[in-house]
Model the fold of this input.
Amino acid sequence: NAGVTQTPKFQVLKTGQSMTLQCAQDMNHEYMSWYRQDPGMGLRLIHYSVGAGITDQGEVPNGYNVSRSTTEDFPLRLLSAAPSQTSVYFCASSGGPGDITGELFFGEGSRLTVL
Amino acid sequence: GESVGLHLPTLSVQEGDNSIINCAYSNSASDYFIWYKQESGKGPQFIIDIRSNMDKRQGQRVTVLLNKTVKHLSLQIAATQPGDSAVYFCARMTTDSWGKLQFGAGTQVVVTP
Done:
């Protein structure tokens, strides 16, 4: 059981380049989300989705796009990378409010550096 | 605005002692408070959660206490082990915003022999 899988684990970009961080989960979870983690800080929500075809903005959405065409996948797109987007990105998934716990399952992270 | 914050950035604990990590929150409408452990280079790992209608919940070697009167949350780790060295985050979530966690800044727990 793979859980939440993120790729790539490491990426270096130049300012203005675009890229997509991939996230896939095999737990049939409805809820998926992207967070970024900066040094000395907790995770901050970028975008999230409550199901295929439904996405919404989180706390820090600027500079990022998402789509949810399938239950399993939730890619995060950087259209024009900026140095301020240098961070570690985590994808997470969870079941719905009817589940026993409020546990979110996190991937191992994608470390992005923008030069 | 709403926030979840931690009292101490670093907690040094001797192996075998109990650890207590504290967290304050500003909005009592939260339905869930959740503790996560993050080891270096890894994603956050769920430890335990507690609903806002509970005061205490126990897991394996961990206990979470929720004091709604003073809006305070704590995580107690019994008989702390070297493998408990990590950053611990408290987070909150509501049924209206399910799947959207609001995290505190984290407490670094260092276990010394």
Q: What stands out?
A: Chain A has a mean pLDDT of 93. The first strand of chain A starts at residue 4 and ends at 7. The two ends of chain A are 36 Å apart (CA to CA). Chain A has no helices and eleven strands.
